[in-house]
Structure formats: structure tokens, C-alpha cells
């Protein structure tokens, strides 16, 4: 199986080293804000449902349109 195309090779390899699947590593690496560091993002609990929905869309979470805010948070943390 061919490895997914990634924007940030170092980040991809780091995620693979942590045990993430090829698909999940590529999805995280290719998220628009993936390369930003500094821990400046607020906790998901402080995000609006619309912001959580957009993030879920960016990382390819299926079924997001029917999820509650709590479910979106759980899906983003565990996907």
C-alpha cells in the first residue's frame, strides 16, 4: 500500500513513531493548522459547536452533522 501524501514529513514520521496509523498521521499532518506550535489553541470545550464541526470536517470525521458538541469533542480527541 502506498503511503499517503503529506505536507510535513517530520510531523508525519513523529506521529507514526507514536503509533498512529498511516491514515490518521496523514490526516493530522495535512490539517490546515497542523504545523503550528505553541499550545495556543483553547481546549475544545471552549470552542463553539460550529468551530468543532469545521475541525471535524477538516480531519474527515464521518457523521459529524448529527453529533452534539460533546460527541464532536469526543470524536476529535479519539479519531
- Provide the low-confidence segments as ranges: none
Beta-strand portion reads under 5%
Molecular shape: elongated
What's the mean pLDDT score?
81
* CA distance, first residue to last residue: 21 Å
Return Rg in Å. 13 Å
Structural class: mainly alpha
* Contiguous helical run count: 4
Largest sheet: none
Number of domains: 2
Instruction: Please give the share of residues in helix.
Output: 40-55%
SSE string, helices as H and strands as E: HHHH
Q: Strand tally, please? A: 0
Question: Can you describe this structure in just a few lines?
Answer:
The protein has 79 residues and is an all-alpha fold. Helix content is 48%, strand content 0%.
What does this structure look like?
It is a single chain. Helices cover 48% and strands 0% of the residues. The protein has 4 helices and no strands. It has helices at residues 9-17, 22-29, 49-59, 69-78. It is elongated, with a radius of gyration of 13 Å.
Amino acid at each position: 500500500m502506498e503511503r499517503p501524501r503529506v505536507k510535513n514529513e517530520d510531523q508525519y514520521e513523529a506521529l507514526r513513531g507514536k503509533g498512529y496509523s498511516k491514515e490518521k498521521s496523514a490526516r493530522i499532518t495535512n490539517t490546515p493548522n497542523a504545523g503550528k506550535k505553541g499550545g495556543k489553541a483553547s481546549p475544545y470545550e471552549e470552542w463553539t459547536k460550529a468551530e468543532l464541526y469545521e475541525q471535524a470536517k477538516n480531519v474527515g470525521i464521518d457523521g459529524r452533522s448529527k453529533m452534539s458538541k460533546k460527541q464532536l469533542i469526543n470524536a476529535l480527541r479519539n479519531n
